[in-house]
Amino acid sequence: MSNYIFYPGCSMEGSAKAYYDSLNAIKGSLGMNLQEIDDWNCCGATEYVGMNLVPAYSLIARNLALAANQAKGIDTVMAPCSACYLNLEKADYYMAERPTLGEKVNEALAAGGLHYDPGSIQIRHLLDVIINDIGLETVKSKVTNPLKGLRVAPYLGCMVPRPDYQHRWSDFEHPSELDDVLKALGAEVIDFPLKTNCCGGHMTQIGPETAYELIRRLVSSAEENKADIMVTVCPMCQMNLDAYQAETNRYFGTNFHMPIVFFTQLMALAFGKTPKEAGFGMELTSTKDALAQIGKDVPAPAAVKPGKKREGLPMPAPRLRKYAGGKVTSE
Amino acid sequence: MSPTEVIEQKGAGLRKPEDLTLLHEVSVATAGISNLEMCIQCGSCGGSCPSAADMDHTPRMIFAMLRAGMKDEVLRSNTPWVCVSCYHCVVRCPQKVHIPDVMYALKGMAIDAKLYKDSNAPDFAQSFVDFVENYGRSFEFGLATRHYLKHYPLRLPGMTSMGFGMLTSNRMSITPKRIKKMDQLKAILDKAKTLELTNE
Q: Counting Cβ atoms within 10 Å, is residue B118 exposed (0-12), middle (13-18) or buried (19+)?
């Protein structure tokens, strides 16, 4: 078994639940033992860094400090979400590159009884771990149900291959790692020209027209290249292309239908798991036709039971802060 | 007239050393080493940028404006807010300017200077940060509904089928989660807010 400290990130428990479920379905076959960081917090995505720098990096570094404390001989923290992966790696890298940032962050961490020395743990993405630690031979040996005839467009998005501070990837713009994994599963992998182009990121929320154009480029290119399905490594990419594809079609008057799932979902299918175990059925752009190519059905989503006691806290009361001509005022 | 002749005729006024105060201010406010001073105005950044068409000024232009000391114009620009953090520009920049990180620094400066008038993007960031500061986790449902209610109320009806889809497929929780040691995180963030990044 290979041991990893595991940083799931917020999306894995929400919009990217299919990623979480499918990773859980395959980790045993791959010999991965994942130890979740106890009491991890959000990485701040791309929002906090634009608001307030030292708090943003302190937020990220709390996770690194917790991970390093928990590691006990494990040398790697693995993150499956692209934004989480980049934020952790960026904090680790900049704390060393800019020692004053490292000092300030540690001064803040000390207020919570924590400390982090940059470089004390490696930060790696799930795909990197699968390719370079587990290896393609192991992946191939676990395939019982090759994805023969399924044409897939490998789509990594931005934040895994770039900026790549630690030189872990084969190329900034056309890396081959995802193609290699999908080929090992027996799928027909198309040469997808936009494999590291942007999905729009948070622009679906703050400037939808900008995002719709980027989504249109991606799905139209995948369709032109006759892909049955797109495959990604990133919760944000999956969310934007899957959930906003209908909006994009409405905006442009187009009729694209390009499903997108996580690479771990196809791995799970190829390893003989059922579509339900592989997290299928949660996508909003249906995978029915794509799965039919390999003789599988999409399961119906699990119905939310009426009257079921919900986990979690009560919905917070709306407390919109005023953005008074620029300055965000606190209450 | 050649540039040399212009300088000779117009005198020393044109030979004054550039005032790089603003450039340095932005550089200090950027995480990591920005390399902002190294920009050679080649335009690879704007040429690589997927959202440049929607920007008031391309990144190259912003860097020229910083060098020229045009603080208000830069901080009024939508450029940093339209940056999608795709890092195409960073890997193509021959001078290794950390462009998205410079954009993050400019967002913070624009908020402090109260110059950026469109509240949409800063509001979204602030809502996101609010949830993180109070729960330690992001909260997709609360963030999306709060933001759409305020900024795109007319689009909400069109979005309900998607929201409903997210809820019925169990991909979105309508209640937030809170981390266990919220006090510890609050103490860290409160301390961090008193600390400013300075030049070494």
A: middle
